[in-house]
TrEMBL record:
The chain crosses the membrane at residues 12-31, 38-55, 67-88, 109-134. It is a multi-pass membrane protein. InterPro entries: Colicin-V_CvpA (IPR003825). This is CvpA family protein.
Length: 195
């Protein structure tokens, strides 16, 4: 394990992101209980779908045809929707508490919180891997350096192992999305060569 420690800043950043999201969500799960973590997990799923269908349009307002703008708009929409669901969970906390079974609630919420953190990291990693898989060419604005984050994630000690679960994220959203994420983020990056 020591030999596999991250040896550059992008790899270390990917692993730190993974660990922070898992630990923070596990702690939040312990403090807020199971049903609030379920609400957060639903929020993450809804956020992914909202970002898939709205992200490129939002990005076009700021930087049309830029894959990085598409990716950042995607992440921003996911974050906003997750925060919205967290607030809704807080607002309806009393109603949620009356439904929960207290005996296993904290332990289950801790594990569910860690799972939410893992899935949050996997959504971010999925976006980075999708950008990294984009194909630069003369007909689009995809930069050659697009795969730096994806390579860092694959090369990182923890994140490199965690991305093995990315197909689960893809399978979970596949029934509701029309294309793979790489193709979706590439939409709008084509440059018209006709004058």
């Amino acid at each position: 394990m020591i030999a596999a420690l991250d040896n550059n800043v992008p790899q270390l950043s990917a692993d730190l992101l993974l660990v922070v999201l898992i630990v923070v969500n596990a702690i939040v799960g312990w403090r807020t209980r199971t049903l609030r973590r379920v609400v957060s997990l639903v929020g993450l799923y809804v956020g992914f779908l909202a970002a898939y269908y709205m992200g490129n349009g939002v990005a076009a307002v700021f930087r049309k045809g830029d894959i990085y703008a598409n990716a950042w708009a995607f992440v921003a929409i996911v974050v906003v929707v997750v925060i919205l669901f967290e607030v809704l969970g807080r607002v309806f906390e009393d109603r949620l508490k009356s439904v929960a079974v207290i005996a296993f609630d904290r332990v289950a919420a801790t594990f569910l919180g860690a799972a939410v953190g893992l899935f949050q990291a996997l959504v971010l990693f999925t976006v980075a891997l999708a950008v990294g898989a984009a194909h630069p060419g003369p007909g689009n604005t995809v930069p050659e350096s697009r795969d730096v984050a994806a390579n860092a994630i694959h090369g990182a000690a923890l994140s490199g192992r965690a991305v093995g679960a990315v197909p689960v994220v893809r399978a979970a959203v596949a029934p509701l999305t029309t294309t793979d994420l790489t193709t979706h983020l590439e939409d709008g990056t084509q440059v018209s060569l006709h004058f």
